[in-house]
Amino acid sequence: MTGAYYLGLMSGTSMDGIDAALVDLSNGEARLLASHCRKYPPEVVDQLERALKLLEPRTADLDELDRLVGENFAGAAIELLAKAGVAADRVTAIGSHGQTIRHEPDADEPYSLQIGNGAVISALTGIETVTDFRTADINAGGQGAPLVPAFHAAVLSSDTENRVIVNIGGIANITVLPASSSAAVTGFDTGPGNTLMDAWIRRHQGEQFDLDGAWASSGKHDARLLAAMLRDDYFRMAPPKSTGREHFNLSWLSAFLQGVSIPANDIQATLCELTAITIADAVEMHAPDTRRVLVCGGGAHNIHLMWRLNENLPDIPVETTQSIGVDPDWVEACAFAWLAKQHIEGKPGNIPAVTGAGKPVVLGSLFKADATQNR
Question: Residue 276: is its pLDDT beyond 50?
């Protein structure tokens, strides 16, 4: 095999596993060569859940967890290469998103903390590794998120139709891709994607996620609860904006459930509708000329959610990225492979119109394969 091989590693807010993608980024394209998902060991998930509850994680001792997460990310990369039959020396670099512990872009001292030690990943894999992609954008005055729109613009745009890419992970975000190269690419986090639905079914059914949206489809969304949730200030904020589990979590939901009695499956249906309607509202308000909506991320497999998106966007086709030949499960991991390439080549990886940064900047910190240098 020949080409410019990069490896992307991604674990989202759901923490359901580490996605690893081997990508050929030659000729301005992104060709997925192989993919792999590695589950976190239960004890690591437990430690991560405790870390997520920390009010000020920057002052906590997370070194051991940082190392453990790095080892698991490295394991995902090693397993992927073995699966693909590709030697480590064929890979130019790894781009590792890491595991987000806290995202506070609007704090008095903005920051976004991801763990997953880059020195450990580079040492165990023998491959240069780029991590900490968000800090440079925040230092330039941006939100540090979302970062995938630059990748969407590079590989998923069309010169014949206006598109919106919707990534539905724990949090949902949109990328507006105009057909005209003279029009600006924009995007932002719309609000909760799967995170509230996952948390609610975990509490009531003991399942990690709502397979096909079956539990949500068994209920009926509650109009009053939905209206109350939609009054949250985040949905009215103008972009650029980004959010995370720090804001949208079960504690947030519980505040709306005080003094009301709603069946659990109706609440799940309402959470699904919240995700669908906030995405649809974002498209209608910020991309009214959209000709096609393409969905990627875990939410693309939620049949009920996809139906609700179609119902809330009746005049726009809503499909998954598979319709244009891109596997919806691996878009984010591919994006971080691409962001690693941008770093290696000294090219910006952010879009200021998306993140709010004052300028385009090169993202990430590089760890050499001998783990003795970084930049």
Answer: yes
Residues in Cβ contact with 32 at an 8 Å cutoff, skipping those fewer than 6 apart: 21, 22, 23, 326, 327, 330, 334
Classified as helix, coil or strand, 331 is helix
| Per-residue pLDDT reduced to its tens digit, 140-184 | 999 999 999 999 999 999 999 999 999 999 999 999 999 999 999
d(CA 295, CA 12): 16
Over its C-alpha atoms, the chain yields an Rg (Å, rounded) of 20
Residue 233 neighbours by CB under 8 Å, 6+ apart: none
Dist CA 313 CA 308 (whole Å): 8
d(CA 197, CA 107): 27
Distance CA 235, CA 191 (A): 7
User: Quick one: 319 exposed, middle or buried, by C-beta within 10 A (0-12, 13-18, 19+)?
Assistant: middle
Cis peptide before 146 (omega within 30 of 0): yes
| β-pair partners for 189 | 173
Q: Are 119 and 317 in contact (CB under 8 A)?
A: no
Q: pLDDT tens digits for 178-236?
A: 999 999 999 999 999 999 999 999 999 999 999 999 999 999 999 999 999 999 999 99
Two tokens at 283?
Answer: 């498209």
Domains of the chain from N-terminus onward: 5-144+348-367 (3.30.420.40), 157-324 (3.30.420.40)
The single-letter code of the amino acid at 21 is A
The three-state secondary structure class of 35 is strand
Q: Is 328 left (phi over 0), alpha (psi -120 to 50) or beta?
A: alpha
What is the per-residue pLDDT across 53-96, written as a single tens digit (0 to 9) for each? 998 999 999 999 999 999 999 999 999 999 999 999 999 999 99
